[in-house]
Amino acid sequence: MGWIFACLPTKKVVSKFNKNATPNVKTGMKVLDVGNTMGFFSFPAAHLVGRKGKVVCVDMQKKMLDALTKRSKKAKLQNIIEPHKCTQESLYLDDWKDQINFAFAIALIHEVPNKENLFCEIRQSMKPSAQFLIAEPKGHVTEEQMKHSLKLAKNTGFVQLKAGLSDYMCYAVMQKLD
Fold first, then answer.
1. Domain encompassing residue 60
2. Structural domain total, the chain
């Protein structure tokens, strides 16, 4: 996924994330960042949740988690950002069941072979009515692929609140059905 960000204007993508996340993320919340890479979105989320919140950063690449850990210490956010190793088969979020207030997956869904399992595991980690931001790079993911992913999310217990396009991303805000 990191190569995608090398091709995108990162400031604009982060700005769009902030626009969609800021109204949904409050101080003290627990946030799930699936496929965090180097923390492009983990750090803005950590500032939003503050010292009483948590940002659980899930990635299957140890190198990315190590870099995130180093960067979070440097930024004095190590008590907020919690790196979490997963595999292609599972996010291993059993310890976070029904605790997450807001989740997001940026430029990730298209890389996951078993999207339904991914959506199920994310949903299980979320509190009732919690929201989930999905964003995929426009041009890399077709409109049909995005629609298919959103249909799978709906089939696993999410409802779509809104969707849109920016210059670079297709996005949707989903909500966990109770």
1. 2-176
2. 1
Q: What is the CATH number of the domain that holds 109?
A: 3.40.50.150
- List 162's β-bridge partners, or say none: 173
Given a contact cutoff of 8 angstroms between Cβ atoms, the answer to whether 11 and 35 are in contact is no
According to DSSP, the residues that pair with 83 across neighbouring strands are 57
CB atoms under 10 Å from CB of 72, counted, come to 22
CA dist 5 to 23, 130, 163, Å? 24, 27, 21
- Residue in the structure block whose two tokens are 């959506």: 119
pLDDT in tens, 79-133: 999 999 999 999 999 999 999 999 999 999 999 999 999 999 999 999 999 999 9
Question: pTM here?
Answer: 0.89
